[in-house]
Task: structure prediction
Amino acid sequence: MPIQQANWSPYDNNGGTCVAIAGADYCVIAADTRMSTGYNILTRDYSKIIQLADKSVMASSGFQADVRALQKVLEARHLVYQHQHNKQMSCPAMAQLLSNTLYYKRFFPYYSFNVLGGLDSEGKGCVFTYDAVGSYERVGYSSQGSGSTLIMPFLDNQLKSPSPLLLPAKDAVTPLSESEAVDLVKTCFASATERDIYTGDKLEILVLNAEGIRREYMELRKD
Amino acid sequence: MIVDSSSPAPTKNSLLLSSEADLQRTQTPYVTGTSVIAIKYKDGILIAADMGGSYGSTLRYKNVERIKPVGKHSLIGASGEISDFQEILRYLDELMLNDSMWDDGNSLGPKEVHNYLTRVMYNRRNKFNPLWNSLILGGVKNGQKYLGTVNMIGVHYEDNHVATGFGNHLARPILREEWNENLTFEEGVKLLEKCMRVLLYRDRSAVNKLQIAKITDEGFTISQPYSLKTQWKFKAFENPTVGAEGSW
Result:
């Protein structure tokens, strides 16, 4: 029997953009709510953000079925952790778990581009950024997804994060206030929406701080 | 697939290693259904689909029911490979049977069934042997309306209106313009018929024999098959080459 060529792909790109910014005592995580395939919009109201633990929020874009499966795996693993340790997972712990979970499928990856945001054990904002197979690092801010190429340079310019190569290490979290950071995120998405066809419809913003978690929405262009 | 006597009987090892394993995997669909469209309306969900089963470019079967009830609270509509849809119905039958065997007064609602289907579709995709369908799952439970969709690679979402296949290109734009959350049953049917008519004109796999199904808190009905009126007597269709003699 001659070698068959696959005539279907197990992957699709459902688009979207995610951003996270770490502050001194808060963390902002945001993503648009558009879900697309090819040149079609499937729905304008799909959340890419999930709260995995008290102080860990993940935003993911890419192939939606893989994103959802990944979210479910992490949710389940967190539940087991809570049963075994009688406490919530810290954000850095969740960060490692996410990395390991992604690498576990190194040879049939989750097509999911993630940013994990939250508060570390000292209450400072933390952001972790990933590729599809689990390579990650802690940063002061990051964006992933279809609009990341438009947003990342803008964030680099506005947040002027010190080089991670400096010794002694300089703090990566932004000195901006919470409301300034939220405004910056809104500006990022308004701009990305103009030029990226996969970003738009609505922006969902989650803010984590000592008081808890707050959710905010902003309309984006629907074209 | 023609398996003749010259190929050796597959042993267990060779089944896993050789291309005989590929005989077991879906590579292409054979008998397929085209678009399904669905909307939420005031009292529940409306789903429409034609009754065609195409065999490539042949409109082979014209009495295929592509909308079926699932338990008391849901309806499923399917496009894509009909045999895979039949297998999904068998899975759902087993699911609902096990659910009712608990005999605990609880029954699976549309959200739960949709979640189950999503996991089934995704898991088959993971094994590179997909169920070649795009499914719509709609229903009402305890007054809560639910409408979701899932396709062969596991991509899923819920919305106020959903469609599969060509319906995404032709029907969704109409629904985006004209849908509102207070549609009456008559208005909903009219809106779906408008979409089905466009699909009938523009989708070559569409057949003019459709069913519209409704589900509310009270229960479900699937209409008897009927046809849409179409209009072909346009002046431009008469003497079509009059402006360019010799053309077709």
User: Anything to note?
Assistant: The first strand of chain B starts at residue 31 and ends at 33.
